[in-house]
Amino acid sequence: MLSLDRIFWFITTILTFAIITMACRNDKPKADAGNTPGDTSSETFEDFYQRFHSDADFQLERITFPLQGMPALADSLQIEEGFAWTRDDWKILHAVDWDTLAGFHREIEKTDIFVNEIICMDDKPNVCMVRRFAPISGGWHLIYYSDMNDIGRKPE
Questions:
Q1: Cα–Cα distance for residue pair 80/95, rounded to 1 Å
Q2: 46 vs 20, 52, 56, 154, CA distance in Å?
Q3: Which residues of 42-54 are buried (b: 16+ CB within 10 A; e: fewer)?
Q4: pLDDT range class, residue 2, cuts 50, 70, 90
Q5: Is residue 129 part of a domain?
Q6: Most exposed residue of 7, 65, 102, 121, measured as fewest CB within 10 angstroms of its CB?
């Protein structure tokens, strides 16, 4: 006959083993194991950026409206009161080859929590478009968009 101590030890060992096994499981899908097109768990910023500018439906999915920002050449009232883009007034952004586009230069600032893209006119370096992207729920999203405005930068 088994003693109560041995039964308790046996049950405790089995439960501990089960908890450790469950905690060590890897529930993430493998990269090539049938991820659905909407799965963004392994999305790079570069892949997102290319698709964001080539797929209008994807672009709209990756913007949470109302989107904070500024329209082009915002006036003082819009700046003071704040501005937010709506789905109705949003114009789809298209890809631009920044290496061949004359008259503009582009700066990218990447941090652990966002990517800041600043596109300025060469002849007016304080007139810029600002876009900010952040990873949300496993995928990149546009979280701020200011069209061309004087952002008060000093020429370099």
A1: 31
A2: 37, 10, 17, 29
A3: eeeeeebbeebee
A4: low
A5: yes
A6: 102
